[in-house]
Amino acid sequence: MNERQDAVVVVGLRKVFERRARRGLLRRAQGEVKTLSAVDGIDFLVKRGEIFGLLGPNGAGKTTTIKMLCTLLSPTSGTARVAGHDVVREAAKVRSSLGTVLTGERSVYWKLTGRENLRYYAALYRIPRRKARERIAELLERLELAGRADELVEKYSSGMKQRLALARALLPSPPILLLDEPTVGLDPQAARNLRQTIFDLKAGGKTVLLTTHYMAEADELCDRIAIIDQGRIIALDSPAALKEGLGAKEVVRLEIQGEPNGLGDALRALALVESVAVRPSVNGAGTCELQVITSNSRRSIGPIIESVRAAGHEVVHFQVVQPTLEDVFIRLTGKSLRD
Amino acid sequence: MIDTLLAIARKDLIMFFRYPINAVFRIVEPIMWLTPAFFLGRGFSVDGTATGFAAYTGTGDFFSFILLGSLLGAYISAVFWGIGYSLKMEMDSGVLESNWMTPVPRLAFLVGRTLTSLVVTTLNCTGVLLASWLLFGFSAGGPVSKAMLITLPMLAGLYGFGFAFAGLVLLMRDANTLVDVSSFLVGELSGRGFPVTVLPRALMVISLVLPTTYGFDAVRALLLGTKPLLPLGVAAVVLVGFMVAMLVLGGMAFSAIERVCRARGTLGMH
Ligand SMILES: Nc1ncnc2c1ncn2[C@@H]1O[C@H](COP(=O)(O)OP(=O)(O)OP(=O)(O)O)[C@@H](O)[C@H]1O
Ligand SMILES: [Mg+2]
């Protein structure tokens, strides 16, 4: 790979799926072929040695993008180059330069031991046997699997399976790693450990492209983030710059009792208030959360509380915070990532 | 490349022998199925010859006829289940994608699996033969090496067909029924369990279109002295043609279907 080359270059990438509606048991409904643009013309560039995140809600098109990059899916249009190789025309070269972990847990054979899995995949990557043995031992050690390497994978915990999948991806020492939701399904401790591993990989000179729908994770891990929603990239920058994009703004979080009918509009009408998002509270206690972005919380808190009271609501909880990526997302799409 | 194919086969073998009980049952089970045939044959026999059966086939040894059929038939099920269905299982369990992300050409996974399938099925068949010799006194009455020679192109053709079938199975949501029914039909219509000459005309036509029918028939003719449907030379030509056509077409069909899967994105779950 050329020194100056970018690790991943994506231009106008699109993937359109056909969805055939079925009517009855077998008959295919006529003329009901619906198309869905899962990835709708995205452009981005991953620099060598950085951790780049695709952040977006369920169904945003993250996995579809990753699968096109690792040659499991063919793009409908547009181009993508990985380590300088075109994903369509030079698929074999792309596969040699990449380590990919999709659905981590399920990407290894449960009826084989960890070591047997790695030995098998080492052969697929044409690693000579002697070298493979050393490499496998080293990876097992590094990912803290050495002690249980000769047990069947079905006996592993989720975190161990995920680490084994990562070891599998690291076997050929690929310069670039694609990780699809690497921490999903892991307990907080295991997730933290995995994030540390990802940092270590970066320190070792690897380029990492990962997807996630956890804001905090993207914020912590990534050098740069592309926020993706409904197949489109709606913002792309470093986490800090994305948050600064909200200006010298602050976020007022309110939890109120009852349905906020019309309250959102009342708040938007206030001076200094930039935007308001409303969503039902997660704890299901009949309360609602309001997210009010304001350019000056000191001067707007009073009017905000007054409006809420005037609408007949009780304030259950109140907080002024620095903007997070979540707020950036809400600002850009008007909806919350968690919904 | 050979190393890669061996690694693929090795992995399947490890999993197959992980539970040795299963491996043993693969031999016990066919014997179980064959035992009634042995006694049935005896029940129809006068002085060790099933005369009615002999009139149709040219041999009075009903049991040996069935035994050879089920041995060759084992390769048919091996192709349908071991190549077709097991690829689908890999797809459903999620490992297909991790295999297909490696630089190994995708057809190689099927070839590797074919190796395992051949080894395992041949081991099974040897076990069943051995048991039949011990229990039922089976012995071949003709040139064994010639019979093996003529099965080779048939097996190659079958596995070539298996590649196309594996592709087809990948396209299906639920492949179990398709695999079960087609494996059964191809086996029976090739004459696994009876001489195809007893079939009604419409079915016999289908049977005679299947090249495997001539493979089964030739092996029996050689080993049991049955009346062959075709002269052995002609049967050999048919089977070699079948082999060439299926290896080429099967490979092409699989690659074409693999492209469709890549466009549709149906390899994994979503
Ligand atoms: N093979 C397919 N056929 C049809 N539609 C598909 C296929 N794969 C994905 N989709 C659809 O494309 C859209 C994007 O899916 P994708 O899996 O890329 O989302 P994602 O961002 O990874 O979301 P998640 O967080 O749920 O993993 C979804 O609406 C999904 O249903
Ligand atoms: Mg996904």
Assembly state: heterodimer
What proportion of the residues of chain B is helical, as a percent range? Answer: over 70%
Beta-strand content estimate of chain A: 25-35%
Name the beta content range of chain B: under 5%
Taken from the alpha-carbon principal axes, the silhouette of chain A is: elongated
- What's the helix count of chain A? 11
C-alpha Rg of chain B (nearest Å): 20 Å
Greatest interface = A-B, 37 and 31 residues
Model regions low in confidence, pLDDT < 50 over at least 5 residues of chain A: none
Model regions low in confidence, pLDDT < 50 over at least 5 residues of chain B = none
**Structural class by sheet pairing and helices of chain B:** mainly alpha
Structural class of chain A: alpha/beta
Estimate the mean pLDDT confidence of chain A: 88
Bound molecules: adenosine-5'-triphosphate, magnesium ion
Q: Tell me the strand order in the biggest sheet of chain A.
A: 6-7-8-3-9-10
What can you see in these coordinates?
- The complex is a heterodimer of chains A (339) and B (270).
- Helix content of chain A is 33%, strand content 31%.
- Chain A contains 11 helices and 14 strands.
- In chain A, the strands form 3 sheets. Chain A has a 6-stranded mixed sheet with strand order 6-7-8-3-9-10, sandwiched between helices.
- In chain A, α3 (114-124) packs across α4 (129-142).
- The two termini of chain A are 41 Å apart.
- With 270 residues, chain B is mainly α.
- Classes of the chains: A alpha/beta (339), B mainly alpha (270).
- At the A-B interface, β1, α1, α2 and α3 of A face α1, α5 and α11 of B.
- The structure holds adenosine-5'-triphosphate and magnesium ion.
- Adenosine-5'-triphosphate (ATP) sits between chains A (17, 19, 36, 38, 56, 58-64, 213) and B (264-266, 270).
